[in-house]
Amino acid sequence: MELILLVVHLVACVGILALVLLQQGKGSDIGAAFGSGASNTVFGSPGSASFLLKLTGFAALVFFGTSIMLGYHASKINQHKAVLNNVILPQPVAPMPASGDIINKTPGDFSIPLPQPGNGSQGQ
């Protein structure tokens, strides 16, 4: 569904570009450039719109419609995906033990050994 909408959207976009470039601007006669009386038709005649103008309006309507539908489709796909759901939190790191304390440690023991009273050499 999304691929079809995207293809229609791109065709409408290219169609609008081509149709706008094909149309002749109002008041673009050679006389309008030099200030002759043809410049009074800048806003155009009150007659009916040309076929190219109607086709451009239809292509613009299709372009806006597909833009809205693609935006709606994108919001429904990403509705349940949050940025923070994919974050991996770092694991806590145990402090480095002193070089002599490594022998007495078990693999899961992260406690820090406290000095024992009477094992120190105080004032001998």
Task: Round the Cα radius of gyration to an integer and report it.
Answer: 38 Å
Element-level helix/strand string: HHH
User: How many individual β-strands?
Assistant: 0
Q: Per DSSP, what share of the residues sits in E-state strands of 2 or more residues?
A: under 5%
- Work out the helicity level: 40-55%
Classify the secondary structure makeup into a structural class. mainly alpha
Please give a quick description of this structure.
The chain has 124 residues and is mainly α. It contains 3 helices and no strands.
SSE diagram, text form:
Layout: H1 2-22, H2 30-33, H3 51-77
Helix pairs in contact: 1-3
What do these coordinates show?
This protein is mostly helical and 124 residues long. It has a domain of 53 residues. Helices cover 42% and strands 0% of the residues. It is built from 3 helices and no strands. Helix 1 runs antiparallel to helix 3. It is rod-shaped and about 110 Å long. The relative contact order is 0.11.
